[in-house]
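Ticket #4471: structure export looks truncated?
Reporter: QA, pipeline team
Priority: medium

Steps to reproduce: submit the single chain below to the structure queue and open the exported record.
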Amino acid sequence: MIPSKKSASVCDQALRAGRASFARGAFLGLCASLVLLGAGPAALAMDAPPPQGNLERLEIVTASGTHKFSVEVMRGGPQRERGLMFRRFLPQDRGMLFDFATERPVMMWMKNTYLPLDMIFIGRAGKVVGLAENTEPLSEKIIPSGAPAYGVLEVNAGTAARIGLKIGDSVRHPLFDK
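Actual output as written to the record:
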């Protein structure tokens, strides 16, 4: 059977429409893939809210009293490397505690970190051994602990001044010896 011109034109139109729809879908899918691949996971996480689970309680004891925080604890290499990078917000009662597993000189930086932070360097016994206040966002300048540290607590800039934090003050968390 030979198709009529009318049926052929209807079939051709349907075929063209199907190809156009397929091509449009494939093009949009390709564009979305390129955007996601080009942006990378860091860009996608920039505006992600901080995790709500896995928060641990931490207290800082200063001359002005006991100050309570909920902290994310970074125990492994990849976690420690990422830290607060790409975050745009940190609640006032939150922080991030880095566990270095041994007491040693520690060096930090603010690369890809948009929030100004106070970095509190803590010895194995839970005493503050160093303090870097109001660190510069996005800076690659090295921030040394100044003394061997077992952990580093990052909190919003201005927190150390607000609670009257001094070298020698105590930090209570299971990570540190009592």
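Status: closed, not a bug. The export was complete when the record was re-opened. Leaving a note from the reviewer for reference: The chain has two domains: 1-44, 55-172.
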